[in-house]
Write a structure and sequence with these properties.
The chain has about 90 residues and is of the alpha+beta class. The protein is built from 3 helices and 4 strands. It has one domain: GIY-YIG endonuclease (3-Layer(aba) Sandwich).
Length: about 90
């Protein structure tokens, strides 16, 4: 699927597409994964805004999917493989 990376701030998030479910990755400046999550179509910008100020990260990368189920399956694999600092363990 298609992906996009932007700064993890209000103006960067505002420019992200909202038309499909996404897997988002919040990363540090060095590229270390801090958090991975899923947002439904129409909620991408809102969901990412909920994390602003909570997770120190320099960028956010999204990967768009045709279904929310596909995004959730990929999220589970990413969390299992990378064990991001701010994801609850055992998800």
């Amino acid at each position: 699927m298609s992906g996009k990376r932007t700064n993890f701030n209000k103006s960067g998030i505002k420019n992200l597409p909202n038309d499909k479910p996404v897997l988002y990755r919040i990363q540090t400046e060095s590229g270390k994964l801090n958090y991975a999550g899923v947002a439904q179509r129409g909620r991408v910008q809102d969901r990412l805004s909920e994390h602003l100020g909570e997770i120190p990260g320099a960028s956010v990368q999204i990967e768009r999917f045709s279904t929310i189920q596909d995004a959730r399956e990929k999220e589970a694999r990413v969390i299992k493989r990378n064990q991001p600092k701010y994801n609850k363990q055992g998800k």
